[in-house]
Design goal:
The protein has 290 residues and is α/β, with parallel strands linked by helices. Helices cover 33% and strands 22% of the residues. It has a six-stranded mixed beta sheet with strand order 7-8-9-3-10-11, with helices on both faces. The C terminus is likely disordered.
């Protein structure tokens, strides 16, 4: 069987608490992503979903202490790679769409200025005219109707859906092999969310990209993804095919599903999610942390 596009084994991330002790945030997570696969990661806020995605790209904050048994991308050992080489992969072979364009886009720079920074890093040496043509083409590829106007606009002049499309255009323009989408539809209404997902779907099909789709929305993940990993307290408690998520066996996953009652026959009372301390039994090895 071919090697997965990306794989990490035993990933652990922790932060130093005020008393000097390490507070674990990711506890020994192991996952694989294959080419063209849509892997959904679901769980409550603080379960470690975003940190897991950022660790693969080397985007953890400086204060994070982390370790991993293996961290590989396209057959390359990311743990043995120099930081400069690792950074070259980001924005070219690996990309990440952040959660909210209001906080991810620079408010004092136009869309074209921000996209130009990305494109110069991808292919240095292009003229301003060539860069402008690439920017407009990238905006057209995500179905922005007036790309010339949007290119010269500031982030506050764009709607949420438009800003998210700009983020997608910036991240997928180089045809990354791995794309991590961190809550890309959380701030959007249903119609715009469907449009954004259609754009993502088109980009994945075009480049055979592996997608890690981080979300709170279980019904959305079940309909959009191929496989789902459920995280609780920094650990993967269950992994299954997206179509089988409704038949999940772990009580935490069942609790999350119960929090999405059907609209046609809503229950008289919502169930309470009961947590088991045993789910957090694994400890963080501070001695191996980086």
């Amino acid at each position: 069987m071919d090697e997965p596009l990306a794989r990490f084994d035993g990933l652990k991330v922790a932060f130093t608490a005020t008393d000097g002790t390490l507070t674990p945030a990711v506890r020994g997570v192991s996952l694989t992503v294959r080419r063209g696969e849509r892997l959904g990661i679901v769980g409550e806020s603080g379960s470690g979903k975003s940190l897991t995605g950022r660790a693969l790209l080397g985007l953890l904050p400086p204060e994070a202490r982390w370790s991993a048994d293996a961290l590989r991308f396209e057959g390359q050992d990311l743990l043995a790679m120099r930081p400069k080489e690792r950074r070259r992969l980001c924005g070219t072979r690996m990309s990440m769409i952040l959660q909210d364009p209001k906080y991810s886009l620079n408010p004092v720079m136009t869309v074209a200025q921000q996209m130009r920074e990305t494109f110069v890093r991808q292919t240095p040496g292009e003229s301003r005219r060539q860069l402008r043509e690439r920017i407009v083409a990238a905006l057209e590829a995500v179905h922005i109707r007036d790309p010339q106007r949007v290119a010269d606009a500031y982030p506050h002049e764009l709607s949420g859906g438009m800003g998210q499309r700009v983020m997608i255009a910036m991240m997928v323009s180089a045809g990354p092999r791995l794309l991590i989408a961190d809550e890309p539809t959380s701030a959007l209404d249903v119609l715009v969310s469907i449009q954004v997902l259609a754009v993502l779907d088109e980009m994945i099909e075009r480049h055979d990209t592996g997608l890690v789709f981080i979300s709170h929305d279980l019904p959305l993940v079940m309909s959009f993804c191929d496989r789902v990993a459920v995280m609780y307290g920094g650990r993967i408690v269950e992994t299954c095919a997206a179509r089988d998520l409704r038949h999940a066996t772990h009580p935490y996953t069942q609790g999350l599903l119960a929090a999405h009652p059907p609209l046609d026959h809503p229950p008289d009372e919502l169930p309470t999610l009961r947590r088991d301390p045993a789910w957090l039994a694994e400890t963080f090895d501070a001695g191996a942390a980086r």
